[in-house]
Design goal:
The complex is a heterodimer. In chain A, 72% of the residues lie in helices and 2% in strands. Chain A is mainly alpha-helical. In chain A, helix 1 runs parallel beside helix 5, helix 2 packs parallel to helix 4 and helix 9 packs across helix 10. Chain A has a domain of 202 residues. Chain A is globular. By secondary structure, chain B is an all-alpha fold. Chain B has one domain: Orthogonal Bundle (ABC transporter involved in vitamin B12 uptake, BtuC). In chain B, 76% of the residues lie in helices and 1% in strands. Chain B has 13 helices and two strands, in the order αααααββαααααααα. Chain B has a two-stranded antiparallel ribbon with strand order 1-2. The chains are: A mainly alpha, B mainly alpha. At the A-B interface, helix 4, helix 9 and helix 11 of A face helix 5, helix 10 and helix 12 of B.
């Protein structure tokens, strides 16, 4: 048995990874629900979020808290432009084309950032209000890391409430089930699709800002995480919001535990779990059988 | 029919004299990736299965061939066959898992499984991690014919490529291939006609993985190197690009696409990240503007012209 602080430290790290998995897979699930495409560019949007925050700080001197608001808006607008100019043209086609297009976009975005900023990573300071940590007796908790977990839980919960409990959310769920019918009721579904893609992109941007002080700001951070998030999505099934959030956090914890007990497998454990889940329950833990 | 035979003879003649005019390494690289793309297209173009993890088979076979040549002193044909066998076994395992999901999920599952292989190769001792397996000897075919001469190696690669393409061609133009197309068009109907579609998909997946392994093993001999690049998701993306650009579901499309992509890579080898950016841009342009790919659009244009001339 490893010492308790080591175990708790890795669990916390796992929880933070899980927070990013949760926010990213939530955005993927929302976009998939309405647009029926898997957004391969999601990792690139996340990486862009971190870079926008970093650029705001280094060029305009705009700090963390304004960046936490501005960045998701910027990334959301960018996402809406992508949906309007490109993804919309693929609406009637096989969903695989959406995957291929967003894969190409991810290559372009990642390549451009790599070309401009290299792969070494840029440091982003922890905001002054969240520096330091608390000694909980059994472990040392850096305040910022606790904040990341709480902030992503709050954003996931807010998204869930907005979709399950508001009028707009009800329309969104209806449009996911049957777009032509909702259109017949006079709802502007194309606008809703644009807004949904924008919101999903904004979530990715938000996660990027949260991640900036934890990991360094790096052009490769998006592609590193997106494949894991895909596995998370396959494990959870994209049917339910609560499901994707729970799966995200849960798998982050499992990854953290693996780092303690069998570090060699920590980078592959999620993929192994995915294979096992597919063998036992192909629709995913929270998915409906199709 | 006559024009087809003439075309085939022309291609054969060009292929045979090509190494006297063009740098053989470039040709061999293009042929290896063309075979890789042909194997991938067997799945995407005929069975409608988009695998985003084919680099796992290509790269792992490359490692196995390299290992067999350097550590066991195997002859090239044995080393390549070992790579093919491993790729086929992996294909059986991956296929068994991945065909439980369709469409977009299939793509995500294969991508995730391939990433698992990538991390395995990063840590396993026999791959030599970041260094890869270097200075792989080319050996002597059947222990008799040395492959060190680039032109001789070229003809060997050409033969491997031809065998691989012939296997795919036979598979596609057989009752088996017809069933695959039926599954692509309408799987429920194929099931109701009594076909065990899962078994067909699994066999197609294994065959495709084995041929991707054939391409990967041959590539290890050509470059005398097996490295992490070969198992990286980027390579999986490249083979998708080749097939999409050339035209999925056509016999010549993936080959043409592979030559174009490899040409671009060689031409802009010094431009670093711009190659990736250009590849991404090609993805976007092809998906938005000509989804049938170069060969698909050319065939369309040809048929329209013929129809116009006849009418």
């Amino acid at each position: 048995m490893p010492p308790l602080p080591v175990l708790m430290g890795q669990l916390l790290l796992g929880l933070i990874n899980g927070a990013f998995y949760a926010v990213l897979s939530l955005g993927l699930a929302l976009i998939f629900g309405l647009l029926n495409i898997v957004n391969f560019a999601h990792g690139a949007l996340y990486m862009m979020g971190a870079f926008v925050a970093w650029l705001l700080l280094t060029t305009l001197g705009i700090g963390y808290w304004p960046a936490l608001v501005i960045t998701p808006i910027v990334i959301g607008l960018f996402g809406m432009a992508v949906e309007r100019t490109m993804l919309r043209r693929l609406a009637a086609l096989d969903p695989l084309y959406g995957l291929l297009l967003t894969f190409g976009l991810a290559l372009v975005i990642e390549g451009l950032f790599r070309q401009r900023y290299g792969v070494s990573g840029q440091p982003y300071p922890v905001p002054s209000a969240l520096q330091g940590g608390v000694n909980l007796g059994y472990m040392f908790l850096p305040i910022y890391r606790g904040f990341v977990v709480v902030a992503s839980l709050v954003i996931c919960l807010a998204t869930w409430l907005a979709i399950e409990k508001t009028k707009l959310g009800a329309l969104l769920r209806a449009a996911t089930e049957n777009p032509p019918l909702v259109r017949a009721f006079g709802v502007n579904v194309p606008l809703m699709i644009t807004a949904t893609y924008g919101f999903g992109a904004a979530l990715a941007g938000f996660a990027g800002v949260l991640a900036a002080p934890v990991y360094s700001v790096n052009p490769l951070m998006g592609s590193n995480i997106i494949i894991v998030v895909f596995a998370v999505v396959v494990i959870g099934g994209m049917g339910s919001i609560i499901g994707s959030v729970l799966t995200g956090f849960g798998l982050g914890l499992v990854e953290g535990l693996t780092k303690v007990f069998y570090p060699e497998a920590s980078s592959t454990v999620i993929f192994v779990i995915m294979a096992i889940v597919l063998l036992i329950k192909p629709a995913g833990l929270f998915g409906k059988a199709s | 029919m006559k024009s087809r035979l003439a075309f085939a003879l022309l291609v054969l003649a060009v292929a045979l004299i090509a190494p006297f005019g063009i740098y053989p390494i470039f040709l061999m690289k293009a042929l290896c990736f063309a075979l890789f793309a042909v194997s991938f297209n067997l799945l995407l173009g005929y069975a409608g299965l988009l695998s985003f993890g084919h680099a796992a088979f290509f790269g792992m076979a490359s490692y196995v061939t390299g290992h067999a040549m350097t550590q066991w002193g195997a002859t090239p044909e044995i080393a390549i066959l070992a790579g093919v066998a491993v790729a086929a076994l992996m294909g059986a395992g991956f296929g068994y898992i991945a065909i439980r999901r369709q469409g977009i999920y299939f793509a995500m599952v294969t991508l995730a499984l391939a990433q698992m292989v990538y991390f395995f190769c990063l840590q396993a001792p026999f791959t030599h991690g970041e260094d890869g397996i270097q200075a792989i000897p080319r050996g002597s075919l059947f222990g008799l014919v040395s492959l060190d001469d680039p032109r001789r190696l070229y003809y060997f690669v050409l033969a491997v490529f031809a065998i691989g393409c012939w296997i795919v061609w036979r598979a596609v133009h057989s009752p088996f291939g017809q069933v695959l197309r039926a599954i692509r068009e309408n799987e429920p109907r194929a099931i109701s006609l009594g076909y065990r579609t899962r078994q067909y998909k699994l066999v197609a997946f294994m065959l495709s993985a084995a041929l991707a392994g054939l391409a990967g093993g041959t590539k290890a001999l050509v470059f005398q190197l097996a490295s992490l690049t070969d198992v990286h998701w980027h390579t999986s993306g490249e083979v998708v690009l080749m097939t999409l650009l050339g035209g999925m579901g056509t016999v010549l499309g993936p080959i043409a696409g592979a030559f174009v992509v490899v040409f671009i890579e060689n031409k802009f080898a010094d431009a670093g990240d711009w190659v990736t950016i250009l590849q991404g841009a090609i993805f976007v342009i092809v998906v938005l503007l000509f989804r049938k790919g170069l060969v698909g659009e050319a065939v369309d244009w040809w048929q329209r012209r013929k129809a116009a001339a006849a009418g």
